[in-house]
Amino acid sequence: MKRISGKRSLTIALALCVGVSSAALADDIKIAHVYGKTGALEAYAKQSHTGLMMGLEYATAGTMEVDGRKIVVIEKDTQLKPDVARSALAEAFGDDEADIAVGPVSSGVALAMLPVAEEYGKVLIVEPAVADSITGENWNRYVFRTGRNSSQDAIANAVALGEEGVSIATLAQDYAFGRDGVAAFKEALQDTGAKLVFEEYAPTDTQDFTASAQRIFDALKDEPGRKILFVIWAGGNNPIGKIKAMEPERLGVEIATGGNILAAMQAYKALPGMEGATYYYYEIPKNPANEWLVAEHQSRFDAPPDFFTAGGMSAGMAIVAALRKTGGSTDSEELIAAMEGMEFDTPKGKMIFRPEDHQALQPMYHFKIKVDPDVEWGIPELVRELKIEDMNIPVRN
After folding, report:
1. Do the bridges between strand 379-386 and strand 275-278 make them parallel or antiparallel, or are there none, so unpaired?
2. CA 228, CA 160: separation in Å to the nearest integer?
3. What is the CATH number of the domain that holds 381?
4. 120: left (phi > 0), else alpha (psi -120 to 50), else beta?
5. Do the beta carbons of residue 127 and residue 357 sit within 8 Å?
6. Distances (CA, A) of 266 to 34, 93, 130, 370
7. Are residues 97 and 143 in the same domain?
8. Which domain holds residue 207?
9. What confidence tens digit (pLDDT) does each residue in 139-164 have?
10. How far is CA 181 from CA 175, 184, 219, 388, 392, in A?
11. pTM greater than 0.70 (yes/no)
């Protein structure tokens, strides 16, 4: 055998190292979408997944690659069950070797998933679960959220509804989303002059709201000035239509609520002039990403993008922005360093991951409902965009 010179040996060794490095860089980027594909929030989940895939597509200009690494999305169904969600996320990070996870839909399910991200030391982007405690008391450093939190909802709606002489009662679901939402709304109202006089909580599967409505009416009927029932509800069994049928206006009580998916906003047609605040409505934001989303979604699905489609797209765009900052690395520590304080584009415009709790600061929209007989839902016309600097969102961890 011929002897290989030291110089040539070094050249071969370097070539082998470069080959190994290139192979590692060429590995797929695995993103696990762990969300409630089945269950009461299935409509939200479908929108979120569609948006996530469109966000990855838009942010990579259709290549579904970052720095030569292919993006692969793995789907896991939480079934809206906390124990199933924990197992699904552990399986995604462990067996499937996912680099990043996105999800879930439900706040209660999200709270069960947070410790799994910490245990595996992998980034979990929460979208669209809302409860403040996700980026508050239950938060850990591997958790980021592109979705809005309860405080953002609450402050925006307090701006829309709160003023001197207004008395407000709330009706919310009796779990993390509803209770965190009311707590944040109550706190936000303190600076407006309005007062919260009554809180009513109902199980998520409630069908008959007669007793709840009566307690609310009794609490409001003798209050002076403007009287408002503010509803915080997610998923099916939305009580707005049923309570409206009880004619609260005979007691001088108005119904108000925040934004929702288009199907739920069909009930808003009975509430012309109703004011509130929303996270997204496809006609409101004016930017290239939203223009692309609206046009492409209409073309592909013969319908405009919905509330949670925009959220999913925001998560996809955040992932690509972070990967570009790390040069394509999926190392968790490098991702965290890149994402803390990161500004990134979304269909809503600019968002910023706040370093203290990784909550995405973002605009919200004060609206008034307009009714058009040719449109199936009440249209939330923009009254005022609430910019990031207009809202003082508390850090709760």
Report:
1. unpaired
2. 12
3. 3.40.50.2300
4. alpha
5. no
6. 29, 40, 23, 12
7. yes
8. 151-278+364-390
9. 999 999 999 999 999 999 999 999 99
10. 10, 5, 20, 19, 16
11. yes
